[in-house]
Every structure is written in structure tokens, then in C-alpha cells.
């Protein structure tokens, strides 16, 4: 294996992949994770998630606040727990998943995670394009044809730089972004809150809708970030206090999500014309003073580029875990090209948002069982991993049968099936969820997350408890 320090020094490009981060590259404090995750989550997407609780789920403002509080209190401990393994192992969550799924079994997991993050990257780049195009339109520049494609390519190349340069640059950018975005969203709150009517609603929603809204909050935040927790904490020194790692990682996402989603819920109560669709993040300027439109659009563009930098960094690592033998910079470039192509397609196809929404809505079906197997495995082995075994793709203590640990793989697949049976993602309603609300299945409660977590966690524990050392590879 080549020396990552030499590569970083000579080329200026961080070559660190899923391989173990060497001791002499470990640095920083646990509190740095706060700025990483705060910079990642402090953007217009988070505001929109709060607005959708009122617009899409039909919650009152106060019901939305309840869903936001409960959902985030449940979600961000998952990110905290999934960040604890990084300092001790020096590798990524998907690589650590080899201990429960086997090297080849974890490839499927890595592929799922890569597809998830690629979807978020593409959505972010689409909105970056629309924000910059709208900004240019304010100054009289109208784009069409080749100019649209040219702008998309330029924006895609710019957002590629953060993860390509590497972890250190990404951490610095996130810290800067956190401060800038916090100030900007304070201004946004000052402009919006006086117009909000928090006593108004689209009707008081039933308990099933509130439960589904809580699930939406969970999967759109801490649960979707959990599979990237150790991707960044692995750069901390191995002796970093774990309570500090978990606390700072969780707070970095929890605080912005609580504040910005609450702001989004308040924004959704503002009376606007029927032509304004507040579920579109770029519709916000319609309820703001004209002078704030330009800085708002700049904020959207820059903020989503920073967020996409984090997504690109993690997705490139996950694709390596999926068995693609390419260095991380090569995968980052490949991801960026795919995002550019998807964005070009999305600009021309109005159905793109519907397809993307359907994809994001299904994430909990995989994420809930995965995080359960991952954390139960960590608990059962008391946080101890064979580091050489994690990096061994042709044998070792985690090989299982044919490279698959069937206890983990079965628990994951069964959990996904059960999760799907209880799911209500808006476009897909599981048969059990539909049976629980026979009069109106579309309003069935989405129970994919709790059923997936319980099924996979209990099943994995049962399959391993009788012969712990053999099945977990601790002998």
C-alpha cells in the first residue's frame, strides 16, 4: 500500500480511502465534529423538511414542532453511536459493517449507501443549478440549451473540489460555512417569523400522520447520516473520549435540524398566493423582501455545495466498500460526472423530482435494519474489532461462508422485508400498513423504522447469542 502522507504532500490531493487512517494522520478535537455536521445540515434543505411537515403531512404548526422534537431526539443518537467506532478503528462505517456481514456481504451494503448519497448529491446539484440560474436571471441573463449544460458542468466541477482536496479542507470549509449560514438563517428567521401564523394550519392531522411525520424527520436527518458517522470521526486520535465524539457529532446535526425545521414549519404558515409552492425551497424568496433574494440564492448555492462535498466524500468511500477497486479521488470524479448527467436530465424532465422523492422515501426500508445490525454487532463485541480482519477481503475472522456472514445478512434482509410491509412512503404502502388503515390506506402510519430496527436487531442477537465467539469472529 502506498504512503498516503506522501501522496497528499506531493499532489495536494487527499488519497485516503477506506484503508486505516495512520496514527500520524490523526488529529483534531471531538468538537470539530460539531462544525462538520452543523455545516452539513445548515442549509435550505433542512428548512424545507420542516415546511413539508405542514404542507405534505397536513400537520398544524405545533404538531410539526412535536414531530421535529421527537424525530430528532430519536435520530441523532443514531449518528452519535455510529460515530464512536471511527477513532478506535480508523476506518469507515461500511468497512466496519464487514464484521457483521462479511467482506462480500458488505459490498451490497456499500452499494445501497452509495446510491443513497448519490441521490442526495444529485438533488443538491439540481437545486444549486436552479439557484444560480435564478440569480443570473435577476441580472438579466437567461440560460438555455448549451449554456444550461455549461453552467451545470461548471457547478459540478466546483462542488467536486471540496471532497477531492480531502478531509482537512472539508473540515475547514464546514467550520466557515457553519458561522456564515447561522448568521444568514438568523436573518431569514427575523424576516419570516413576523409573517408566520403559528395558530393556522391545513387542518389538525391524525395520529397516523404525526407518526409518519416523525419517521420522515428521522430518515431525513440523523438516520440517513448514520452510515457516514465514522467516515469523519476516524481522523480523530484513537484515545479521543467517546462520550465527546458522540455528543459533538449529535449536537452538530441536532441543533441546526431543530432550529431550521422549526423555521420551515413557521414558513409554511405564511399566507402566500396559490401560485407559490413552498415545498420548493427556491420559492422562499416569494415571502421575503426583494433585497434578500440575491443573498438567499447565493446562500442556497454555496450551502448545498458544501453539503454535497460531505456526501461526495462519503459516497466515494462507500463505493470502495462495494468492491470497486478505484482510489477515492477517482470515485469522487466519477460521482461528480454522474451527478452532472442526472442534473442535465432533471432540468429537462419535470418528473425527476417525483422519482427522487420516491427514492428518498424508501431509504428507511434499508437504513433502519442496517443501523440496527451495525449497532447490535458493536454492542455484542463490546467495541472490539480485528483491524487486520476488517481490511482482509479474501479471508480472516469476518469471512463467514464465501465472504458472507449469514447471521448479519439474514438479519438485514429479513428486517428490510418486515420494514417494507409496515412502510408508507407516499408512493408505496406496505400490505400490513394498508391493513391497519383499511378505510384510507394512504393515511396509514409509517412504521418502517421501528419494525425494521426491532426485527433486525433481535434476529441478529438471537442468531449470534448461542455461539458468540464463532459467529462474531472474536475467538
From TrEMBL:
The chain crosses the membrane at residues 34-55, 61-84, 114-141, 147-169, 176-193, 205-227, 248-270, 282-306, 326-348, 354-376, 409-430, 442-463. This is NCS1 nucleoside transporter. GO terms for cellular component: plasma membrane. The keyword Transport applies. One of its GO terms (molecular function) is transmembrane transporter activity. InterPro entries: Pur-cyt_permease (IPR001248), Pur-cyt_permease_Fcy2/21/22 (IPR026030). It is a multi-pass membrane protein. PANTHER family: PURINE-CYTOSINE PERMEASE FCY2-RELATED (PTHR31806:SF1). Belongs to the purine-cytosine permease (2.A.39) family. Its main location: membrane. It is found in: Membrane. Keywords: Membrane, Transmembrane, Transmembrane helix, Transport. It holds the Pfam family Transp_cyt_pur.
